[in-house]
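Take a protein:
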Amino acid sequence: MKDQEKKVSQSKEKENQGQVKEITKKLGFGRRFILRSVRYCLAHSLCSKVAAPI
């Protein structure tokens, strides 16, 4: 059960990264800032998901 959840979250993360790459290609500016903020966002949401059950 937990292994499946991990796989799902990993695939979602890959989807998000793909979307971010598309967006940054379109924008072409502020790439580092956007990637940094998105990574922080993903890390924060993952942390809260892990911490919630405990």
